UniProtKB/TrEMBL annotation:
Domain (HD-GYP) ranges: 113-301
Residue stretches making up the HD domain: 135-256
InterPro entries given in the database record: HD/PDEase_dom (IPR003607), HD_domain (IPR006674), HD_GYP_dom (IPR037522), RmlC_Cupin_sf (IPR011051)
Signal peptide range in chain numbering: none
Name the UniProt record assigns to this protein: HD-GYP domain-containing protein
Cross-referenced PANTHER family: CYCLIC DI-GMP PHOSPHODIESTERASE PA4108-RELATED (PTHR43155)
Recorded superkingdom: Bacteria
Taxonomic path: Bacteria, Bacillati, Bacillota, Clostridia, Eubacteriales
Length: 301
């Protein structure tokens, strides 16, 4: 690339769209990439360590406001402020307080990670949601509740990152479940339920080898229950990772409160009472308590 190039507003080389996030590659040359990132309000987003210490990234706020916790203090940044990441040792997360537009410059290629890998996973999630219409936006709701519970449990930035990916993509394995099983209005036969029981492991296998492979374990365990009555492995208690326990609670709550063609969803109050009745047996008591706090803060109960 050499010379001067003119491009009009809205032009880009390639754009990646995902839930609440849009990343457009404006220019690249050698190792350097210039991008515009747009993120919806009330969304967690992350800055990741690079493969080597030479990676430097700049995030310049064109519009909007973001917040981050730094040294036990909440820092708020807005238009004209910027973040520089260099030699990052651990993942760092921020939360948008409004819709946000960022100028994102990296001195090493990063766009291809989103372009090639996130596209495939996001498309697969879309197909799963089309297979079973009750799950429309289910993954996004489970992610939001899981992230909020993770914050209340004071999980590290790294664990919240793993948690949000696991929650967003927990049902990927349903891509292998026959449509007639997913859409069946009545009780499943034993043979049909065997298809359902395979989806956590299938989802785990799908994300292995991708840039969210750390979430594989939680995806594979999100239907395990404390008393060993879950699936696919019948794990008990501390054999289940905390991310899977959180996703399991969020997943169950959203399933309980979602309308289906043959059954109206529970109210938030009835759903939380149902979850509380199963603490110590299916669900971790502290995690259910944190979900209850979230629902109260949102005015749902």
């Amino acid at each position: 690339m050499s010379g001067v190039f003119f491009n009009y507003k809205g032009s880009y080389i390639e754009k990646v769209l995902s839930k609440k996030n849009e990343l457009s590659l404006l220019a690249n040359s050698g190792q350097t990439e210039v991008m515009i990132q747009r993120i919806d309000k009330d969304t967690l987003f992350f800055i990741y360590p690079g493969d080597n210490s030479d990676l430097m990234e700049l995030f310049y706020i064109l519009e909007g406001k973001i917040a981050l916790d730094f040294n036990n203090e909440t820092i708020r940044l807005s238009q004209g402020d910027y973040i520089v990441s260099k030699d990052l040792k651990d993942k760092t997360f921020f939360k948008t307080e409004t819709d946000v537009s960022l100028l994102y410059v990296s001195n090493q290629p990063v766009f291809h990670l989103m372009s090639n890998k996130m596209k495939k996973l996001s498309e697969m999630r879309r197909l799963v949601e089309e297979k079973d219409m009750y799950t429309h936006d289910h993954g996004e709701r489970v992610k939001e509740y899981s992230a909020k519970m993770g914050e209340k449990l004071h999980l590290s930035n790294n664990r919240i990152t793993v948690l949000t990916f696991a929650a967003a993509f927990h049902d990927l394995g349903k891509i292998n479940v026959p449509d007639e099983v997913l859409k069946k209005p009545g009780r499943l036969t034993k043979e049909e339920f065997e298809y359902i029981k395979k989806h956590p492991k299938d989802g785990e296998d799908i994300v292995k080898g991708t840039f969210i492979q750390e979430a594989a374990k939680a995806i594979g365990q999100h239907h395990e229950r404390l008393d060993g009555s879950g699936y696919p492995l019948g794990l008990k208690g501390d054999e289940i990772c905390i991310e899977a326990k959180i996703v399991g609670v969020a997943d169950s709550y959203d399933a309980m409160t979602s309308d289906r063609p043959y059954k109206k969803g529970m109210s938030p109050k009835d759903a939380i009472e149902e979850l509380k009745s199963l603490t110590g047996k299916h669900y971790d008591e502290l995690i259910v308590e944190k979900l209850e706090e979230v629902l109260k803060e949102e005015g749902l109960i």
